[in-house]
Write a structure and sequence with these properties.
Helices cover 42% and strands 24% of the residues. The protein has 262 residues and is α+β, with helices and mostly antiparallel strands. The termini are far apart.
């Protein structure tokens, strides 16, 4: 319970324990507590102390994100006025938020290869475009993959897909988006230029060529590369089409090759 000056008139044990864990003196002042947990600045628009309660009322139902013991925690705020006092309730919704994040992550991940699936495409292109840098689409297709499935079975084919995906991930940057585009075809979205895009694709091609796949032996990939300045991109789908055309050219020229769209 908080009075009009932000002084806490009554609090429960859970609130007191939380104040001790975050090392703040908010046991007596809601302002001190808010300052301790408001790492993202959700309440900075409140201005003076006198306006804090009014601002908290406006934030009713909002979720506050803060750090506790090195982990992100989430508190949902609810405010009710009782006579001249305000009842502030902070509900711990950390487990719910983490579960929601995990469900979202799983919906974007291909379960076999642990690469992203196609659902990430719009989000990834928007993020790269926002950075204002160049964008490179690299299409990667496993050569003669149908032959692998027909000869050794789909179980072995799945193992090849997983090993190829693992090798690709080992040869790209953490900020690149690695996507299973469909079947034996993968896509790499990278904020880089044409020359660097070619080098990345060539590095991947050589890395996979050097692997001795159990039972199958050697497996190769063909790559198509298309890059542009983000401000010059009329359509991201068009960029993918161009990378596809380059991939088709690599296949036509004998496979196990990288072709850049000119």
């Amino acid at each position: 319970m908080v009075d009009g000056s932000g002084n806490i008139q009554m609090s429960n044990l859970a609130y007191k324990n939380l104040c001790m864990r975050i090392d703040c003196d908010g046991i007596d002042s809601i302002c001190s507590f808010i300052a301790a947990i408001d790492k993202k600045g959700a309440f900075r628009g409140s201005g003076s102390k006198n306006n804090l309660l009014k601002y908290l009322v406006q934030m009713d139902g909002e979720i506050v994100e803060f750090d506790l013991d090195g982990k992100t925690q989430y508190l949902e705020l609810h405010v009710r006025q009782i006579d001249d006092l305000h009842l502030l309730e902070f509900h711990d919704v950390t487990a719910f938020k983490n579960e929601a994040k995990e469900l979202e992550r799983e919906s974007l991940i291909d379960q076999l290869t642990n690469a992203y699936n196609r659902k990430i495409f719009k989000r990834a292109t928007a993020k790269i475009a926002k950075s204002g840098s160049s964008m490179c689409v690299i299409m990667i297709d496993i050569d003669h993959f149908k032959r692998v499935n027909d000869t050794f079975g789909h179980g072995v084919g799945d193992e090849v897909l997983k090993m190829v995906a693992k090798e690709i991930k080992n040869n790209i940057r953490s900020e690149d988006y690695f996507i299973r585009w469909g079947g034996e075809e993968f896509m790499l979205l990278s904020s880089t230029n044409r020359d660097s895009g070619y080098l990345i694709a060539e590095k991947i091609r050589k890395a996979i060529e050097s692997i001795d796949f159990e039972r199958v032996g050697k497996v190769t990939v063909s790559c198509g590369v298309s890059c542009k300045e983000t401000k010059a991109i009329d359509s991201f789908d068009k960029l993918v089409e161009e990378a596809d055309m380059a991939l088709y050219q690599a296949k036509k020229e004998g496979r196990n090759k990288v072709v850049c769209k000119s």
